[in-house]
Amino acid sequence: MRAVVRDGYGPVDVLRVATVGDPEPGPGEVVVRVAVASLNMADLDHLLGRPRVARLGTGLLRPNHRRVGIDVAGTVETVGPDVAGLRPGDRVWADLFEDGHGALADRVRAPASALSPLPDGVPFDVAATVPHSGSLALQGLRAAGRIRPGERVLVNGAGGCVGPFAVQIAKARGAVVTAVDHGDKLDLLRELGADEVVDHTREDVTRGDRRWDVVLDIADTRTVPALRRTLAPGGRYVLIARRIGSFAEKALLGPVVGRLTGTRMGVFAWRANRRADLAELAGLLTTGAVVPRIDRRYELADTVEAFRRLGSGAARGKILVVP
Ligand SMILES: NC(=O)c1ccc[n+]([C@@H]2O[C@H](COP(=O)([O-])OP(=O)(O)OC[C@H]3O[C@@H](n4cnc5c(N)ncnc54)[C@H](OP(=O)(O)O)[C@@H]3O)[C@@H](O)[C@H]2O)c1
Q1: Minimum-distance ligand 1 atom for the alpha carbon of 313
Q2: Closest ligand 1 atom to the C-alpha of 41?
Q3: Which residues neighbour 203 within 8 Å (Cβ) at sequence distance 6 or greater?
Q4: What is the domain range of residue 65?
Q5: Which of 76, 138, 202, 218 lies 20 to 30 A from 271 at CA?
Q6: In CATH, what number is assigned to the domain containing residue 256?
């Protein structure tokens, strides 16, 4: 079978499509025939080995995992010993971030515990866009506490992989949503239901008079003192971290500043593949409350091109790779 592999950290040129042996499921594992995979910023981070401190977990000099790709939707093909609840032919979806990667392949071996059943009503190409970025958006918003109808929600850095899910989930909760990004991503965000869009190259939301009840920060470019100014009394700020230094600042300083200013500021502990979250996301997909935007589809052989597009920032929606 074919699989996208890499032998070291580096830019997209380290990737190649190789012919490898068919995977055999071990105890507690299954082999999934990949229908569709999608790319996330986390794939690019993993490829580049950034931030460097993450290499403590992913391999200091060389990556522990040669395989690439985390978001997968497909069909269970073979089931190893000691697997309950999954059978060949079952439709499944998963984020393999913590489970060996390898979604960019004809087949992938994964622990059964990483896989969730995919309802029949959710097509594979829609499902593949969701597990990583949809879960981050859902868990990030949840960390801000229950969103009440009419609350003002700011999604900062809304036009990438995670933001479109956050905008649509917040709208589904009845929020009035402001989405911050730039260029023609703002048109996409309006189409997705944002009530207001802000171009960060023209307006600094930390400088105006406006305040929000909830701020979900995906761009991760500002400090706690600046971000505090975006919050209404009792407002809640949650960071989806891109940088270790910023994560530490928000985790340590955020709660202190929050307490002093009558707000809540901080980070959250993200968990991949929470079955309840994927079930909730499936519900949002089937009711049409969340409609993932697909940018382009690439063949497995064109994965390098797919990564180049991801890295260029030009994508307007999720990038799919179809074996
Ligand atoms: N626990 C955690 O917090 C956790 C867990 C897993 C993953 N992550 C990380 O979370 C991140 C998820 O973000 P994502 O995938 O949605 O990233 P993304 O696709 O890069 O989206 C970020 C968006 O923000 C825009 N942007 C850049 N600078 C901005 C600014 N100053 N103000 C407003 N918007 C700005 C970007 O535009 P341009 O690209 O055009 O500049 C882009 O559209 C990934 O880096 C992932 O590794 C965090």
Answers
A1: 39
A2: 15
A3: none
A4: 2-129+292-322
A5: 76
A6: 3.40.50.720
Nearest CA to ligand 1 atom 17: 160
Pairwise CA distance, residues 253 & 40, whole Å: 29
Q: Has residue 277 been placed in a domain? A: no
Residues 168-217 pLDDT 10s: 999 999 999 999 999 999 999 999 999 999 999 999 999 999 999 999 99
Q: What spacing in Å lies between the alpha carbon of 218 and ligand 1's midpoint?
A: 5
Q: Tell me the per-residue pLDDT of 56-92, one tens digit each, with 9 for 90 and over.
A: 988 999 999 899 999 999 999 999 999 999 999 999 9
**240 within ligand 1 shell (Cβ under 6 A):** yes
Asked if residue 137 and residue 194 are part of one domain, the reply reads yes
pLDDT < 50 stretches in the chain: none
Does residue 219's CB lie within 6 angstroms of at least one atom of ligand 1?
Answer: yes
According to the model, what pLDDT value does residue 281 have?
98
Q: Measured from the CA of 181, which atom of ligand 1 is nearest?
A: 34
